[in-house]
Amino acid sequence: MTDIVSLAQYALSPKQEAPAAPQTKGLVLVDLTPRARTSHLSAAWQVWRGRLLRVGSPLAILLVWQIASGFGFVAPEVLPSPLDIIAAFRELIAMGDLQSALPVSLYRSLSGLAIGGTIGLTIGLFAGLWRVGEEIFDAPLQMLRTIPFIALVPLFITWFGIDESAKIVVIVAATIFPMYLNTYAGVRGVDPKLTEAAKVFGLDARQTTLHVILPTALPSILLGLRYAAGVALLALVVAEQINARSGIGYILNNANMNQRSDIIVAGIIVYAVLGIATDLVMRVIERIALPWRPKLALA
Amino acid sequence: MPLPDQRASFARPAAPAAVLLKDVSRSFADRAVLDQINLTIRPGEFVAVLGPSGTGKTTLLRLLAGLDQVDAGSIIVPAVRSVVFQEPRLVPAKRVWENVVLGRRGAAARARAGTALTEVGLAGHADAWPSTLSGGEAQRVALARALVREPGLLLLDEPFAALDALTRIKMHDLVLQLWQRHHPAVVLVTHDVDEAILLADRILVLSNGAIGVELPVGLSKPRDRADPLFAALRAQLLAELGVGASTAAH
Fold it and tell me: What is the architecture, at CATH level 2, of domain B1-69+153-244?
């Protein structure tokens, strides 16, 4: 009891000498009073430091890379310097290789994504909305999706040969599953309380689907599209290893045979830029299609 | 589509009841939640259903809404029914006005939604997204959505339970106003004895799957909690619910 009384006094008058007892027994107190706030100047500095470091650290890596290559620490055939890669890009553009390769590769991935995405969306809606659809499609698709699509490439070559259709089929096979899984999960994930409310207010099955289920499942469907777009690019890289006579994969294969590591790295960078561009496009689509979602902080 | 002249058809002497339940039973896993219930509700009558948890209040409401089916007995209800659930149940991807006239589009639907939203004091929020509304506002939208269909029977499933005390008082006034204007039969399921006495013409207390007590509330609306009759009714109902007067006094 005396401990508590002395503690109360301690809490009321912090400047008073702390009794020895509280540290060893009874309540343990912590000081939550905020310490002196950081000044505006240092707050501004912290913001600027964040920005500078974000831009500065990749630049520093490039600089170290360039210096290491320039002093011959890294052999150019192992890893060419950043300036060599820029020169390789200039060469590719001057020869017209990049301009002719990009549309070919884009056509492959986009047509594969369109076909695979449509199939995945259709089956996903069918399985999500109708139990019979789930009974027919869910088990086989869940089994097939565990197969890495890359493992199917040799099979597709024997089926479809090594021309254009084989490449697009690889992309189609890769994009069906993310689209199916997210569409199905999105439709099934709609809160039954919402569909129950729709039933009370006399909406029929078609109206409930159009006005309640699909709008509510749209975020998940778009997430599936975003995954599928990413996978389409991955599948493009794999597909273009199959006897490519055009496209970015052709540039890479050619460079490989000619031991041009600068052009190989340039080709890899083109794939990376395509990946970033895909993600940006998908984000814009999501923003436009889902105006009701609270805006999350975007990088 | 709601029938345009729903209330008029009930006013005819041929249809003296809006709700007619005869020997209605419903059981879940061999437990009789409702056991041979008989209930008649007049058109425009406001009935409150009280009872401890698990006494079949929600089951009764779901049967009346047509969301559940009786095991035995007959149940007759108006063709157009609306429910205000405990949570607003608004479609997050639809604007407020689209939620009010859910399933319908066009300028006419929009105008009807506007009228209904004006009635609940939310005319300015027609184009807002549900996620931007407060709990009380969302529940008012749910009320507008229920009334826009001109229901013959309005079912309220503890619609104010999740609201703060001050908002709840405003909602009670709003519900009374709307009921007086549209005059549907109302079944209000609630835990709140005061709420039941404030709003209802008749109070049912469910216990063990049966209607234990039926009390008409003879006070004129709007009602005053300080009225001695109010206090007497409250004491009586609390005793029915197994809560002594001493424990009930806050």
Answer: 3-Layer(aba) Sandwich (3.40)
**Residues B14-44: pLDDT tens digits?**
458 899 999 999 999 888 889 999 999 999 9
- Interface A:B, Cβ pairs < 8 A: 58
Q: Residue A243: is it exposed, middle or buried by C-beta count within 10 angstroms (0-12/13-18/19+)?
A: middle
- Taking the Cβ of residue B106 and every Cβ of chain A, the question of whether any pair is shorter than 8 Å is answered with no
- Closest residue in A to B61 (Cα) is A200
CATH of the domain at A266: 1.10.3720.10
Contact A174, A149 (CB under 8 A): yes
Residue A58 covered by a domain? no
Within 8 A by CB and 6+ apart from A118, the residues are none
How large is the ipTM?
A: 0.82
Chain A contact probe: residue of B61, B67, B98, B102 with most A CBs at under 10 A: B102
Pairwise CB contact (< 8 Å): B129 & A203: no
Please provide the distance, in angstroms rounded to a whole number, between the alpha carbons at the two ends of chain A.
Answer: 56
- If one counts every other C-beta atom within 10 angstroms of the C-beta of residue A293, the result is 15
B162-195 per-position pLDDT tens digit: 889 898 999 999 999 999 999 999 999 998 999 9
| Least confident segment among B63-72, B153-162, B240-249 | B240-249
Best mutation site among B86, B89, B129, B145 for testing chain A: the one with the most A CBs within 10 Å? B89
Q: Which of A136-145, A157-166, B211-220 has the highest mean pLDDT?
A: A136-145
Domain range enclosing A119: 89-289
